[in-house]
Each structure stands twice: as C-alpha cells, then as structure tokens.
Design a protein that fits this description.
Length: 256
C-alpha cells in the first residue's frame, strides 16, 4: 500500500512538472505578452579583462536584441510592442556543467538535467521570481587566441549558455549569438551545416529568393552567418544584418 502511494505521488510530481513545462513553453510562443529574459555574465577564464568588462556591463548593451525581436515579430504581423524584456543579472561565479567531448544520447540527457539543476542553484539567491528565459554569457579575454566553445540553447528549462568575448568591439556579435540561443529556447532549430558552419539553403539563408542568390546581404538568425557564396559565409557584425526566416518563424509560432 505504501509503495503504491509513493509511486502515485512520484507520478503526480512528474505529471505536474511536465505539464508546467509544456504550459510555459506554449506561453513563451503565443506572442501575447513580453518574455522576461535575464542575462547572467560569467568570467569564463578568470581574466582581469573579462572581470573589468563584466563590471561595466549595462542592460543597454543588449538593446540590439530587443530591437531585432521587435522588428522581426512586427514583420510577421505580431502586435507585441516589446516581445522580449531583457534584464541584466548579477555575475555568476560558478561555471556551468560541461558536456562530454563526444556526447551520446544518454550523456546529453544527463547533462541537460545537471544544467537545469545548476541553473536554479546559482540564480536562486537573486531571483525571487523566475524569469521566462535565462541566458548565461561566458566572457573570455579577447586578447587571447582561442576558438570559443559552441554556445547552446535548451528548450527544456528555457536556458542558454553563450560564449563571447569581453570587448565592446565584440558586443554586437555577442548579441547575434545570444539572440540565436534565445530562439533555441523557444524551439527554433539550427539551419547550418555542423561540418563547416555554412548556412543550409533555402531555410538558412536570409534572402532565399534573392537573384543572384549570392552574395546574401543578411543572415538568417538560425543559419548563423551571411552566405557570401556556396562555400563561404561570415558572422554578421550585428543584428541589423540578421532576419528570422520563414521556417524559424513557423517553429516559434510567429507565422501561421
């Protein structure tokens, strides 16, 4: 009898958590109200440069993301004056869980659970009310020659990890990556090749009907880059040169 009651309680908890997550994700793409997005900076390499940059950060540094989302939702006839309301959180001093170098299905599932637990544990002290989406930006010293780790956005838990450079020069390109990962949390999928990062046409191109097709003038945000030719592409300098394409708009419920 006790075992049956315990199992019933666990099933109820799982059902409640699953239903809560479903409703949160559904509300996040109904585009009736602003989404509260909170950005938490992290000093990724412990450098003095990253520390100084984080100390000088302001919410205004992320205005380009709000402007981009307002412009693109309006283009798809969604009447939300401010689709996302971005807030800057306090610096996080712990690093997020690392994904295996050669991940498989089980390791990814385990990492996802660790990630969601870590997210709550490091933000509880500053978040009396949970934001809709949490984005952690790991800032690196721009003076060091290194290839940044891939950024990631999780729809389950609505959390993103972004790797960027601690420099005003890189602020706008950091915002491009933040916007990309934010849309992942809403259900948007990547539209570039995992092999070479080249946008995959037509859905990964900012102007799939352009004639001639190349060079493109804009990046499709989930394609990630402006395609200059079939085998050459560059990251846009800012979100002024990015758009939300038709397939991405469908995935996040912007278009019917």
């Amino acid at each position: 009898m006790f075992k049956a009651v315990r199992i019933s309680i666990l099933l109820f908890i799982l059902l409640f958590v699953g239903l809560s997550a479903f409703l949160t994700q559904a509300r996040s793409t109904d585009w009736n109200n602003s989404l509260w997005v909170k950005i938490y900076p992290i000093n990724a390499d412990g450098s003095a440069e990253a520390s100084k940059y984080i100390a000088e950060l302001a919410t205004s540094d992320f205005e380009g993301i709000e402007t981009f989302l307002e412009r693109e939702t309006e283009r798809y006839s969604k009447n939300v004056s401010r689709p996302a309301r971005i807030e800057l959180g306090n610096e996080i001093t712990e690093q997020p869980p690392e994904l295996d170098k050669q991940p498989n299905m089980m390791s990814v599932m385990l990492w996802s659970m660790k990630m969601r637990w870590w997210t709550g544990s490091v933000t509880d002290a500053q978040d009396r009310i949970d934001p809709d989406v949490r984005i952690f930006v790991r800032y690196h010293n721009p003076g060091k020659t290194l290839v940044l780790e891939n950024s990631v956005g999780l729809q389950k838990g609505m959390v993103g990890i972004v790797n960027g450079y601690a420099s005003r020069q890189h602020r706008d390109t950091n915002n491009v990556i933040i916007a990309h990962e934010f849309l992942h949390t809403l259900g948007a999928t990547d539209k570039y090749s995992a092999v070479d990062g080249q946008p995959i046409g037509p859905d990964g191109l900012g102007e799939p009907d352009r004639l001639p097709l190349y060079p493109q003038r804009y990046a499709e945000i989930m394609g990630g880059r402006i395609a200059l030719s079939e085998d050459d592409a560059v990251i846009p300098k800012s979100l002024k040169y990015a758009v939300i394409g038709a397939l991405t708009a469908s995935e996040i419920n912007l278009s019917e």
